[in-house]
Amino acid sequence: MEENTIPFEYSRKLTAIQRSLYAYILSLLPHRSDAEDILQETNLILCKKAREYKQDGHFQGWAFRIARYQIMAHMTKSRRSKIHFSNELVDAMAEEDFDSTNLNITQKALQICYDLLPEHMQLIARLRFKEDKTLRDISSLVNRPLGSVSATLHRIRQNLVNCVQRKTPGVEAEMDA
Amino acid sequence: MNTPQLHEELDCLTSKTLDEVATPADLERLEELIKMSKSMRKRYASLVMQESLLHWETGEVTDFVEETKAEKKIINFPLFASAAAAIVALLSAWGLSKQFLQGTNPTQIASDNFESNQPAVKAVFAQKGNTFDSPSNSPQLPFTMEAEVLSEIRNKAVTVSAIELLESGKRFDDGAIVKVEEKFVSLDRTEHLSVPAENGILPMEGIGMIKLSGMVVNVDTQTAEVQETLQVVDIRDLSPRTASSIDAEISLNKGATAYPQTTEFELSVEALKGQEGQDKYSLGYSTNSLIADADHATWESLTSSFVVPEGADFLVVSLTARIEGPESLLPNPSGNYADSFRVNLSTVVR
Question: Hey, are the CB atoms on B53 and A110 less than 8 Å from each other?
C-alpha cells in the first residue's frame, strides 16, 4: 500500500460504521458536541492508521477500540468541568450492541414508526431531531412548559424504540423478499 | 421493581440525558441502571442508536418533514420550503435555460413551471429580501438535504442580496466592496473572504487570500461542497448595441491533510436577466474546473470565459470546491483557498 493512500475497501468500511460509531460514542459521552468532536478525532486516527489495519481483522471492533481510548482521554480531560459517566461504564458497554450490519433495516423500521407518531409528537420530534432546537427553544416555540416538552420527547423516544422492535421482523422479511 | 418499571425509568433518564437536562444524580442513577443487566444495556444502546439515526442522518425521515411543513407555522423561516423550492428552482432553471436556448419565451416557461402549487419555487432568484437571510444569519438548514443544494441555497442568498443592493443604487455593504467603473458597477466579496497566511499556506500575492467557507457534508450522497459568490457585475447600463465577454481568472490551493482528499474547484460565470425588483432568470453560464494537487506550496490557475448573452443584466462569478466519495466524510480542517482573482469585461460596439 502506498504511503498516504487509503484503500477503497477501508474507506467503505469506515463510512459504513459511522452511525454506529457515533452512537457508541454518544452512549458514553451524552453531549452531542462532545460526541461529534470525538467522532472526528477517531476518524482522523483511523485514517492515519489505515496502513496498520489487517484486511481480515474485525473492522468495527478495531474502530471502536480507538474510539474508546479517545472517549476515556476526553473524560479524563473534562472530569472537572462536566458531568459524565464513570470509566466502569466505558468498560461495561459492549460494542456488539451497536452493530452496524442491520442498520438499514432499523432505519426503514424507524421511518415507518416516525410516520405513525401523532401529529403533535411529529412537530416536537422535528424541532428536536431535525432542527436541533434546545428544549428551551421548543418550549417557547410550541408555547408549552419545559417539563411537558421533556416528557413528550421521552414518550417519542419510547414509542419509537418499542415500535421499531415490533416492526423490524416485518421489514426484514420484506427486504429479504 | 420489575423489568418494565426499570425500563421506564431507564427510558426517562436516557431521554433527559440526551436532551442535556439530566442532573448529576440522574446520570448516576442511569449508570446504575445500565450496569444492572445485559438487557438494560441493550435497551440503552437501542435508544442511543435511534438517537443517532434520528439526529445525525435520516434521509428518508426528512421526506416526512417536508410534507408537513406547510401546516406548521411556528418556524418563521420556511426552511424546508426554501430547500424544496431551491431544488425545484434548480431543475426549473435547467429547463428554463434549455428551452430559452430553443427560443421559447422565458416568462411563459416560468409561469408554466411555477403557476400550479409552488408559489415559493421562484425563491432562488425571485424571492425578495428578507426571505433569504445572509449566510451568517441563516438558521441551520436540514443536514439531510443534498450538500450541493445546501451550498446553492447559501450562495444564491448572497447573490440575491448582492443584486438587490446593486439595484437599489447603494454604494456600501457590510459583506462586500462596491466598485464603480466607468460603465458598470460591481459588488466584490473577495476582500471580505480574505484571510492572512494560515494552515501552512501563504497568499500567492499580497498579504491576504480568499478562504472558502466550511464545506457542507451530505453523508447519504457522500459529497462535501462549498460555493462562494465572488463578484456580481451590474451591466444594465451597457448599451444594447454592445457585445461583451467576460474572462475570470483565479489561483487555487488547499491545505494539507493527513490523508488524500481529491478536491475539485470550479469557476463559474452566469448571466442573469430581469427587471428591477422582478424575477431573475439565467440566460446561460460557463464553468471550468480542475482537480487541486496535494502540494500546498503551489498555486494552480483556473480561468473561465463567457460571451455575455444579449439582454443580460447581471454577471455572477462564483467559485465551488467539492469533494466526492467516502473521503468527503472525513474532517477537512485544512481549508480551501484562492488568490489573484481577476475579472475582465471586454466590450465591442456591434
Answer: yes
Cα B86 to chain centroid distance, Å, stands at: 11
Q: Are A104 and A71 found together in one domain?
A: no
Domain that holds residue A138: 100-176
Would the CB atoms of A18 and B219 count as touching at under 8 Å?
Answer: yes
Alpha-helical segments (H) within chain B: 3-18, 24-36, 38-55, 59-68, 79-101, 106-114, 123-126, 147-168
Which of B259, B323, B328 best probes binding to A when mutated, by most A CB atoms within 10 angstroms? Answer: B259
> Any idea what the CATH number is for the domain that residue A37 is in?
1.10.1740.10
Residue A110: helix, strand or coil by DSSP? Answer: helix
Q: Return per-residue pLDDT of chain A as tens, 177 residues.
A: 445 567 778 888 888 888 899 999 999 998 888 888 899 889 888 888 888 888 777 889 999 999 999 999 998 887 666 678 888 888 888 877 888 777 888 888 998 999 899 988 999 998 998 888 889 999 998 888 989 999 999 999 999 999 999 999 998 888 777
From the list B152, B135, B129, B96, the residue with the least C-alpha distance to B272 is B96
Nearest residue on chain A to B44, alpha-carbon basis: A27
Substitution target in A31, A89, A166 with the highest count of B β-carbons within 10 Å is: A89
Residues A72, A141, single domain; the answer is no
Residue B291, Ramachandran bin (φ over 0: left; ψ between -120 and 50: alpha; else beta): beta
- Considering only CB atoms, which chain A residues are within 8 Å of B219? 18
pLDDT exceeds 50 at position B78: no
Task: For chain B, give the percent of residues with pLDDT over 70.
Answer: 68
Number of domains in chain A: 2
Cβ separation of B34 and A93 shorter than 8 Å?
yes
Give the pLDDT confidence of B148-187 residue by residue, as tens digits.
555 555 567 778 888 888 888 777 777 788 888 777 788 8
Q: Please say if the pLDDT value at position B75 is more than 80.
A: no
For testing contact with chain B, the best of A9, A83, A159 (most B CBs within 10 A): A83
Q: Which of A44, A73, A95 is the last residue of a domain?
A: A95
The grid cell for B140 is 441551520
Give dist(CA A68, CA A78) in Å, integer: 15
- Could you tell me if A16 lies within 8 Å of chain B, comparing CB atoms? no
CB distance B258 to A48 below 8 Å? yes
Q: Which of A71, A95, A119 is the last residue of a domain?
A: A95
Single pTM value for the model: 0.48
> Is the CB of B54 less than 8 angstroms away from the CB of A94?
no
Please give the full DSSP string across B263-283, using - where no structure is assigned.
Answer: EEEEEEEEEEE--TTS--EEE
A130–B326 CB contact, under 8 Å: no
Q: Do B11 and A157 touch (CB under 8 A)?
A: yes
